[in-house]
Predict the 3D structure of the following.
Amino acid sequence: MRALWLFIKFLMVVAIALVGAMFAMENSQPLAVNFIMFNSPEISLGLWLILFLAAGTLLGILASSLIIASYRRKLARATKKD
């Protein structure tokens, strides 16, 4: 049963990678993003969108893990007092 779940997860990762690759290929217009302090190199619009999606996902995971860690500390302190 564990091997089946591993295979399903592998297929999901491959499917997501293929959709991302197709998305990047369909949005192939070169684009340079102007940040506050510097200009980026020209890469495709699809790749920029995928990079910003990944960065936003990682920032969201980081923010939620900080909140969860805070709640765990509060819970540990509350259970220690009893």
